[in-house]
Amino acid sequence: MRRYFSRKLLIYILTFFLAVTIDWLIPRFMPGDPVQNMLSRAMLRADAAEVMYGYYTKAFGLDVPIGQQYLNFWNALFHGDLGTSVYMFPTPVTKVLLRAVPYDIFLLIPSILLSWYAGNKFGAYAARSKWLDNTVSPLGYVLTATPYMWLGILLAWFFGIVLGKFPIAGAYSFNLVPHLSWMFIWDVLKHWFLPFASLFLVGFGGQAIGMRNMIIYELEADYSHYLEALGAPRSLVRKYAFRNAVLPQITGLALSLGVIVAGALVTEVVFSYPGIGYLLLAAIQNQDYFLIQGCFLFIIIGVLFANFVIDIVYLLIDPRTRTGMMGETA
Amino acid sequence: MSEDKKINEFLYFALRNKKLRIGLFIVLFFLILTFIGPMLAQNDPFDYVNPGGAEPPSSEYLFGTTFFGQDVFAQFVYGLRATFLVGLLGGGIGTLIGVLIGFTAGYRGGIVDELLNMLTNIILVIPVLAVLLIIAAYLEVRTILIECMIIGLTAWPWTARAIRAQTFSLRTREFVDLARLSGMKSSKVIFTEIAPNMMSYLVMAFILQFGGAILNAATLDFIGLGPTNAISLGLMMQVAVLWGALQLGSWWWFVPPGLAITAIVGALYVMNVGLDEVFNPKLREM
User: Fold this and answer.
1) Domain count, chain A
2) Residues B230, B251: contact at Cβ < 8 Å?
3) Residue A160 with chain B: CB contacts under 8 Å
4) Other CB atoms closer than 10 Å to residue A114's CB: what's the count?
5) Range of the domain at B113
6) CB nearest to B127's CB, from A156, A284, A300
7) pLDDT tens-digit series, residues B224-257
8) Tally of CA atoms within 13 A in the half-sphere of A253 that contains its CB
9) B55 phi and psi, to 5 degrees?
């Protein structure tokens, strides 16, 4: 167990280290000069541009030796300082991002958990069952191949515009002030439902397909045949198969977190849902580099944290990781 | 079994496999459209041809026109070309790196494997999109080739992991030992003894990378970090959303690009399962 944990932890620390380094490295070593680009877009007079250039060079901390810049970057990071947003000047990037994070959590956690649960249930039933396999599997393939934003667009168009049942922009109506009342909660849920549904559906497809295929592998494994030969009832064999198939499904969930988060980003763009994805689009359109870098770090930290949680879950359900054998994720 | 007979048997099961047939048919359909589409399209994808703005499909504009009066069909077929290019190149680069790292790690073992495995696990945890967007955000001019490069360079870990595990199990087989004993170079052992025995894995890895690259590119294009000088299906959807195609009900603008991506990627996934069944008799439905 200690070995499993320390190994995992080492990976996460290295990943974080690498991510921060990338975050620091890319703006400095990309072709072109971001400060110059930013200024040329502002179309200032020549003398004003020079003053601003000096100001931004200082603001980015580009006027000290490169090694020192790297240390400064880490130092600022540990103080929660990710710079100042240009798009929402003069709010610090950390503050802008912390305001957006609750929306992401609100959207991501229910959709990930529910799609995982429902997908695995349906996938397990579909395996080697004629008519379910013929309905759930094709549906699963279509869903898992659907780009998140397209499903979001379709849902928004059909349920929001054609039927007019759901709002398609924002996290709550613009004429409401956040407060605790049933009306407000209902309003928030209505705004939440369609983005949630598009994330849920794509996730559901992937999980159902994965589970179906895993179960088929397990049903062909020696232990299943042996159980069948002993005359065990079909339901018992399937139960064992399910338990074995769930393990790789959990690993799979951890591995697909990056894809799910990316999906959430574009879904938020479609629905103007004020999470990190929506901020990111604004940051890109406004060339707000500090905000882009901040989004990058927040996404990485979120994914690392979620991975860590999944590892703990894994530890609880796979005895092999506890006894020192490495198990699936090693 | 002779080579010929092997191929014949493969073709026999491949052509009988419904999943493989359906998948192949859909992919080929879009591939052909990529080649003949630009000949059928009379307009340049970016030209403002219809002064009337957004109009539904008609005999003049097969897929209708955008809010700006651009020909959706022209955008669609040129975007389709970009999609296949990204799949082929981005997926190709991803597969190549993954295969090389997987072979090296699995065959060498020991410290090399330990280090490469560590690297794979680290890159695996980092969300590909996050890296893509930070690189893309700082690139002033982006071409499709650059997009393919950055997608390929970040998407290899899945493949590396799968190939490593396979190589691991193959490398202790007798025929590999024999090849090694006869003094063959490592690279030759890998490419003449190990690789042919996992051809099915390599093909399937490429198909998955192909589909993954298409989806990654669509995401990148949609948030405005795609190629700066070309049309793509993701860009079509972004412009449609930003310019109120939803509110205006211009479904002909945003349905085709997403439908094409879904159909192509879905068909690739189905093909993959079909191939799995062809290569692995245990999985065939009785």
Assistant:
1) 2
2) no
3) 246
4) 15
5) 7-37+71-283
6) A300
7) 888 888 889 999 999 898 888 888 888 888 999 9
8) 29
9) -135, 145
